[in-house]
Amino acid sequence: MLTPKRVLAPVAATLAAALLVPISAGPAQAASPITISGVQYDSPGSDLGGNRSLNAEWVRLTNRGSRATALTGWTLRDRANHVYRFGTFKLGAGKSVVIHTGRGTNTAAHRYWRSGWYIWNNDGDRAVLKNKAGITVSTRTW
């Protein structure tokens, strides 16, 4: 004989499973040890466009993983779609790299966008880091 408990148990289990389906508010970020760990969007002093001022505007990426990660082909961009593309580059485990807006000589710790004007808006912007497959791995908004 079927009791109400035996009849309702499968229905309750089905409803519970349906309610546990994750809902996403937007595109998911790829799991990555590389994060945007800092942004200096308003370089000190007047924004006159000199290289020293441009280089005081920067984004810092940090590898929080235990292995070096190749960033070759990765991109960093703002809301206006100014894009910095990494050439051949590997970020060591536990290391950071700063991407400066202006010109300079690339090293393991400092890269240069080589832009002639500021990238990051002082009154609000969004830095987006994408891997070489074009998947967002980290964002920073202000």
Q: Could you walk me through the main structural features you see in this protein, from its secondary elements to its overall organization?
A:
By secondary structure, the chain is an alpha+beta fold. The chain has a single domain, classed as Immunoglobulin-like (Sandwich), CATH 2.60.40. Helices cover 15% and strands 30% of the residues. The protein has two helices and ten strands. It has a four-stranded mixed β-sheet with strand order 1-2-7-8, with no helix packed on it. Strand 9 (126-130) and strand 10 (136-141) form a beta hairpin. The chain is globular. The chain starts with a helix and ends with a strand. Residues 11-26 have low confidence and may be disordered.
At a glance:
This protein is an alpha+beta fold and 142 residues long.
Provide a count of the helices.
Answer: 2
- The CATH top-level class label: Mainly Beta
Strand proportion, as a percent range, falls in 25-35%
Distance between the termini: 64 Å
Mean pLDDT: 87
Side by side, the strands of the main sheet go 1-2-7-8
Quantity of strands, as a count: 10
